[in-house]
Design brief:
Two copies of one chain form a homodimer. Chain A is α+β, with helices and mostly antiparallel strands. Chain A has two domains: 8-78, Orthogonal Bundle (Arc Repressor Mutant, subunit A), CATH 1.10.10; 88-136, 2-Layer Sandwich (Dna Ligase, domain 1). The first copy, chain A, is 39% helix and 20% strand. Chain A is globular. Chain A starts with 11 loop residues before the first helix and ends with a helix. Chain B binds a DNA duplex through residues 6-14, 30-32, 44-49, 51-53, 71-74.
DNA sequence: CTAGTTGCAAAGAGTTTGCATGGCG
DNA sequence: CGCCATGCAAACTCTTTGCAACTAG
């Protein structure tokens, strides 16, 4: 199996999308947000194209696909060279805020559950529901 | 605030849905499956009604809602009387098995997130998605 | 030149909403 | 009787597909 894969052109749209995601870094976006972004930039990219590129980029390991809530659209996040293990998400049930949290606890949980309980956690879907500071202190 | 809750009638449809889910026990179903089930039973329930009841039942803590795969529809599973608090829930995305896990790690997580990150986790909704031993070792 | 790419329009799936009718308490 | 529940049809959102025109290499 040769690694030569010319089966992909380096088009302007692809570049735009990937660059945009790289700029966002750890922040994830939805397909719709990407579309809206470029609309405003006078460089509109068709939604079809966006979806198709996102899919390819996921397969190529350049970005990661998240499923936070269901009805909500999928989120995509750039994968940096760094050991970006991702972060976890705290979703406030009251105000709806989504908090991104970088913390080693994530890895500890994953390892513990894998080693002690034989369950391989899908980190991409790990979401903790609860109340953020503002919302529970006011209760 | 009295515990009187007249804001919900015990209708036939509600009973049918809840009973059906209780019978299914550990097996989860989708809204569509419920609809199809009662269609065949000559006791068709409108999809709207099904969705509305499922939502209420989730809020009442009678059933639990899961998101397995993305495009797929949401899954609902009956919550038995048994004490389902104080432990983790691991839901296998592949075989659908729900694993109840008693482990001190839970408290650690909860405390850590509360103390370090000011977020009060709602344990009732905490579900980890991933793959159980049988499903990931076969990969 | 040629295969991959683009994007409009339309299809699809799952879920929600509007609204008039029906039923529980 | 009043308020909630019901369910049909239509709306909505996110995503995918068909297809003809276009472009990178």
């Amino acid at each position: 199996m040769n690694d030569k894969r010319p089966a992909s052109y380096n088009t302007q749209q692809r570049k735009l999308i990937l660059d945009y995601m790289a700029v966002l870094g750890d922040n994830h976006v939805t397909a719709g947000q990407i579309a809206r972004h470029f609309e405003h930039e006078d460089a509109a990219i068709g939604q079809t194209t966006i979806y198709r590129h996102l899919e390819k980029l996921v397969n190529d390991g350049r970005i990661r696909k998240y499923f936070l809530n269901e009805g909500d659209s999928a989120c995509y996040q750039y994968i940096d060279n760094k050991d970006c293990q991702g972060h976890f998400h705290l979703k406030c049930e009251k105000c709806g805020k989504l908090i991104h949290l970088d913390c080693d606890l994530l890895n500890e949980i994953q390892e513990h559950v894998l080693n002690k309980h034989n369950f391989q956690i899908n980190m991409l879907k790990m979401v903790f529901y609860g109340k953020c500071k503002e919302c529970f202190s006011g209760d």
